[in-house]
Amino acid sequence: MNWFSAFLRSTVGAKLAVAVTGILMFLFLIMHLSGNLLVFAGQDAINTYSQNLRRLGPLLWIARVGLLVSVIAHVILTIRLTRQNAAARQVRYAIHKPQVSSLASRAMIVSGLIVMVFIFFHLAHLTFGVVFPDHFALRETVTNLGQTGSAAVADRQDVYGMMVAGFKNPMVAGFYVLALVLLGMHLAHGISSVFQTLGVNHPKYNGVLRKSGPALATVIILGFISIPLAILFGAVGA
Ligand code: HEM
User: Fold this and answer.
1) Whose CA is nearest to atom 23 of ligand 1?
2) Once rounded to an integer, what is the mean pLDDT over residues 82-93?
3) pTM (predicted TM-score)
4) Quick one: how far is CA 184 from the chain centroid?
5) CA 140 to chain centre
6) pLDDT of residue 172
7) What confidence tens digit (pLDDT) does each residue in 112-142 have?
8) Which of 7, 62, 205, 219 could pair with 13 as two cysteines, CB 3.0-4.6 Å apart?
9) Three-state DSSP state, 128
């Protein structure tokens, strides 16, 4: 594994790892959004989805660990790259004003760290039930008709009820919207940078590639934001 740590210590290797971990987190976000949008299809749809996710067992844990490793590597490597850039720039541009690129990367660090705070809150809220334990404890009673027609009654976690109870609180919905806007800004710049890092460029498509970051980020973030807003204003869960 020596070659791997040497690779990660090189600037090119670190940039590539930031890009790959960013892509993995982006894929998670798309899947997470697709699942969460089921809240618009009603209680049964999203609760069944959540129940099925948990039934994946070890596969779910592999995905969770992969996601966690990606987040940690992404944060550590970006902070290291930004420090290296700043150190190199102090020597070369001692008498210049801050460059546009250094402002952009500083904005990436700040928005990224605020998104991290959001993720901690989000996990405490919806995954560990620390923030509102009474919401987390909500259960939905489900009745399954067996092949013989006999009814089996069971209950499962009410993710729908938990989301509705959480986002009816304007402070919680407002915090989510604010954090999601910052995540959108982070994504907009990040997606465009990934193409640069991976060397995807062609004079014919560079304009489209540059715009794809903000465009994709806007669609994803509007999708996420629609959930707390729909609940807050009573379109869902009224
Ligand atoms: C309106 C926006 C969002 C809603 C309504 C939402 C909803 C949820 C819910 C209900 C869960 C628990 C799932 C379950 O236990 O079945 C969850 C878990 C999670 N969410 Fe979100 N989420 C949102 C945005 C985000 C964003 C923007 C991120 C990342 C930046 C994120 C990252 C996560 C992670 C990492 C988990 C833990 C997954 C796991 O335990 O396997 N979520 N989310």
Assistant:
1) 224
2) 73
3) 0.90
4) 10
5) 27
6) 97
7) 999 999 999 999 999 999 999 999 999 998 8
8) 7
9) coil
> 14 and 82 in contact (C-beta within 8 Å)?
no
What domains can you pick out in the chain, each with its CATH number?
2-232 (1.20.1300)
Q: Is the CB of 228 under 6 A from ligand 1?
A: yes
Query: How many whole angstroms from 142 Cα to the centroid of ligand 1?
Result: 23
Cα distance from N-terminal residue to C-terminal residue, the chain:
55
The rounded distance, in Å, linking the Cα atoms of 208 and 212 is 6
d(CA 137, CA 165): 11
Ligand 1 atom nearest to CA at 162 = 10
Check pocket membership of 24 for ligand 1, CB cut-off 6 A: no
- Would the CB of 227 count as within 6 Å of ligand 1? yes
DSSP label at residue 42:
-
Q: How far is the CA of 144 from the centre of ligand 1 (A)?
A: 27
